Amino acid sequence: MGHETLIDAYSQLRSRLHGMACRLLRDDEDARDALQDAFCNLWSADAPASEAEARNKLLATLRNVCINKLRKKHPERLAPDAPEPAADIPAEDADMDYGPRLMSVLSPLQAKVFTMAVMDDYEYEVIALRLGLSVEAVRTHMSRARKKMIEQYKKIER
Asked: How far is CA 119 from CA 17, 23, 31, 99, in A?
């Protein structure tokens, strides 16, 4: 084992890690830099003992590198005692959280599939295995969930 395990895990997860970094940083070049920084940080540390450990360390390190990049880029947003950035928004709109209202229109299975895919970042194949569904059924539930949530969002915004 050793650094070969890290290389294998990185090779398998590279596109998923890049996607995660892009979602966090909202910039492709910053995401590539963060991915490289995370890999270099792990390379210089103790080698992981197993592939699962390598995957977990890659995910955690990349997340931390992205957070550090965001802190450097926007220190006012992530400072714990900074004033709220939405101070000029009326109070009734500032406190509005659409998440629960949007999720309320979903069936329990659609909500579970949506949460696993979006919040937990599971691939459809993993969701299908965990819930005992076909991959096509997972795709269908995701499609219907998105459609219902978009319709609910449009109703809320009116």
From this structure: 15, 12, 19, 12
- Which own/partner pairs from 136-140 qualify as long-range (CB within 8 Å, at least 24 positions apart)? 138/113
Model confidence, pTM: 0.47
Q: Which residue has the tokens 């892009």?
A: 22
**79 phi-psi bin (left φ>0, alpha ψ -120 to 50, beta other):** beta
| Burial readout 45-61 (b: 16 or more C-beta within 10 A, e: otherwise) | eeebeeeeebbebbbeb
CA distances from 5 to 29, 34, 42, 58 (A): 26, 20, 11, 11
Question: Over the stretch 28-38, which tens digit does the pLDDT of each residue have?
Answer: 888 898 888 88
Residues 103-143 pLDDT 10s? 888 899 999 998 888 888 888 999 999 999 999 999 999 99
- 37: nearest Cα among 70, 64, 1, 3: 64
The DSSP letter of residue 85 is T
Distances in Å between the Cα of 57 and the Cα atoms of 6, 29, 37, 102, 118 are: 9, 22, 13, 33, 21
